[in-house]
Amino acid sequence: MWWTLKYILNWVQSLVIRFIKTGDIPKHIALIMDGNRRYAKKRNIARKEAHLMGFKKMMETLKWGLALGIAEITVYAFSINNFNRSEEEVNDLIDLSKQKFKGFLEELDKLKDAGVCIRVFGNWSLLSEDVCKLIARCMIATKDNNKIILNMACPYTSKDELTHAIKDIAKGIKHNNILLEDINEDLISECLYTYKSSNPDLLIRTSGVSRLSDFLMWQVSNTCIYFTDVLWPELTLWRFLAAISYYQRSDSRKVRNNLKPIVHNSNRVSMFVDKIHHERETIIENISNNYE
């Protein structure tokens, strides 16, 4: 009986997905995966177990994205502010990250078949060397996969991101690579951690909290934002589709974030931006090459 019900449910899901796809599908969805700790308390389980279930839900959401034809998903995997939590919980989160990145490396063929490209951005100086090596290796090994991009912000805050962008620009002025009058919104965008990505079309936050918690503050100025009361590990396909349906009915979807590529007004600025991007790519490649 149960397998019949499961078959019917999958058929219904497929039907609803096909219907949703007749509308405007967001190309890029950002997710604030909030509620793991409250889920642990609600279910009377260890926080570590709840965080593991949260990771599994992230991977399930990635599959939904593939089914819907979404090109990019960005998740708030670890805030810099999370380092203020208990040492035990922070260590559990770091250990879980190491375990899962190792798992990615063990399933590279599956990731290639699914077309999943993994990118991780944030302040890597706050991570241990072994974690950085795992991350860099995953990024290099999946960089040519082109069906869906999974961006993981870890460890990240918008304030930190903007601080580093400003430092890069200030360094460029100091070394006469660019001039003060070259600074504009486009240049700042190109110096952010997210320079490879378009701005999100839709941002979803779970757990009933209605704030952005210093996540992609620069990038979501024109983004449709959807808040839901459900805790992250309890997110269902139906809730996910409800968020996309909300986006399809929202006026904000009419405001496209990055329809046109950024074109700089001078070769000087283009050379500076290319230099920054090349330096960042080289750092990741060097870290990856040290992976054992």
In short:
The protein has 292 residues and is of the alpha/beta class. It contains 10 helices and 6 strands.
Point out poorly predicted stretches. Answer: none
- N- to C-terminal distance: 49 Å
| Rounded radius of gyration (Å) | 20 Å
Order of helices and strands: HEHHEHHEHEHHEEHH
Number of strands: 6
* Strand neighbour order, sheet with most strands: 3-4-2-1-5-6
Q: Which descriptors apply to this entry?
A:
6 strands, single chain, alpha/beta, 292 residues
Description:
With 292 residues, this protein is of the alpha/beta class. It is 51% helix and 10% strand. The chain has helices at 2-20, 36-43, 47-68, 87-106, 108-114, 129-142, 158-174, 185-190, 237-249, 267-289; strands spanning 28-32, 72-76, 116-121, 148-153, 202-205, 224-227. A six-stranded parallel beta sheet has the order 3-4-2-1-5-6. Helix 3 (47-68) packs across helix 4 (87-106). The N and C termini lie far apart (49 Å). The model has no long low-confidence stretch (mean pLDDT 92).
SSE topology:
Blueprint: H1 2-20, E1 28-32, H2 36-43, H3 47-68, E2 72-76, H4 87-106, H5 108-114, E3 116-121, H6 129-142, E4 148-153, H7 158-174, H8 185-190, E5 202-205, E6 224-227, H9 237-249, H10 267-289
Parallel strand pairs: 1-2, 1-5, 2-4, 3-4, 5-6
